Structures are given as C-alpha cells and as structure tokens.
Amino acid sequence: MDSLYLLIPIALVFCLVAIKLLLWAIGSGQYDDLDKEAWRILADDEPAPPAREQPEKPRASPGEEHD
Q1: Within 13 Å of residue 33, how many CA atoms lie on the same side as its CB?
Q2: pTM attached to this predicted model
C-alpha cells in the first residue's frame, strides 16, 4: 500500500509530461503531413548535375619546368 503513495504521483507526472510533449508535437507541425515521409522513401533521387569539363593542360616534357 505504501508503494502506491509513490507510484500514483509518478504515473500522474509521467502522463502530464506525455500529454505536454504530444501537444508540443502537434503545435510544432510534426503531424501536419504524414504521407510525405512515406512517399519520400519511394521517390527516386535526383541525378547529380554533370561536372563541367575543363580542357586538359598540355603535359610538360621531363626537361621543362612546371608553373
């Protein structure tokens, strides 16, 4: 019986914290669009843009200095 005096207030505090977190999540928009994340997994990734080709510099022969 003595343990109930401890466990009931702990359970009430836990419930209040859980309700507070749920209301915070709803207020911050966590539950606005539930389908977007499910479809995002299935969507193809956008291909990377092609790298610009740069003209190759002529290679120096073994006797020439490098810049």
Answers
A1: 5
A2: 0.51
